[in-house]
Amino acid sequence: METKMKKAEKLSQSITLKAVIVAVLTFLLLIPGIMVQNLIRERQYRSVETIEKINEKWSHAQTLCAPVLSVPFTTLQNIGR
C-alpha cells in the first residue's frame, strides 16, 4: 500500500508529467484561436466582396462640372437693325 502511495506521490510531483499536461492543454487551446482567425479572415473577404459588388452596381462613370451663370443680354449691333 505504501509503495502505491509513494508512486502516486512521485507521479504527482513529476515535472515531466506536468510539462506534458501543459503542452496538451496549450495545443487544445490553440484550436479555438485558429477557428476565430479563420472566421475573421472569412468576414474580411466577404466585406471586400460586398464592397466590390456595391461599387459595380452603383458607381458608374461620373462627370463633374461647375455651375454655369447665364445672363441674357443684347448687343448694340442687334438693336440698330
Describe this structure in words.
The mean pLDDT is 85. The radius of gyration is 39 Å and the shape is rod-shaped. It starts with a helix and ends with a helix. It is mainly alpha-helical and 81 residues long. It has one domain (2-61). The protein has helices spanning 2-12, 15-58, 76-80. Helices cover 74% and strands 0% of the residues.
Series of H and E elements: HHH
Number of strands: 0
Please tell me the overall pLDDT: 85
> Given the structure, what is the number of helices?
3
β-sheet strand percentage: under 5%
Uncertain stretches:
none
The 3D shape can be described as rod-shaped
Structural class: mainly alpha
Sheet having the most strands: none
User: Helix content range of the residues, please?
Assistant: over 70%
Structurally, the number of domains stands at 1
Tell me the distance between the termini.
Answer: 134 Å
Radius of gyration: 39 Å
What is shown here, in short?
The protein is mainly alpha-helical. 74% of the residues lie in helices and 0% in strands.
Strand-helix topology:
Blueprint (H helix, E strand, L loop, with lengths): L1 H11 L2 H44 L17 H5 L1
